[in-house]
Design a protein that fits this description.
With 100 residues, this protein is α/β, with parallel strands linked by helices. It has 3 helices and 4 strands. It has a 4-stranded parallel β-sheet, covered by helices on one side. Helix 2 links the parallel strand 2 and strand 3. The chain is globular and about 55 Å long. The relative contact order is 0.26.
């Protein structure tokens, strides 16, 4: 008997997806995930940038809040990310770098 399980939902959070080390790591690692086991979304807080646009063209789901990170916006951004995680029922949320 084969028991089918639902894919693990993962949200990768980045400040933006301009060219940089963490962003390149995301770009090159994502194709290696087994999409029968994992459902992946990528969130950028500020802007998609070159890598975000490239990932989107390849068919990956890139969500962009288009919010400038500063003291005034930090609570609203945190609430938006929390709401997104709760709404989409992610199993894992992994952030990159300080602002992610």
């Amino acid at each position: 008997m084969v028991i089918k399980t639902k894919p693990v939902k993962i949200l990768f959070v980045h400040q933006n997806l301009n060219v940089g080390g963490a962003e390149l790591l995301r770009k090159y690692s994502i194709p290696y995930f087994d999409y029968t086991k994992y459902e992946i979304d990528i969130l950028c807080i500020e802007k998609k940038g070159k890598i975000g646009e490239e990932l989107e063209r390849k068919g990956y789901n890139v969500i962009c809040l288009q919010k400038e990170i500063n003291v005034k916006n930090s609570l609203a951004i945190t609430w938006q990310i929390f709401s997104l995680i709760r709404k989409n029922r992610y199993d894992i949320a992994q952030s990159s770098l300080f602002y992610g």
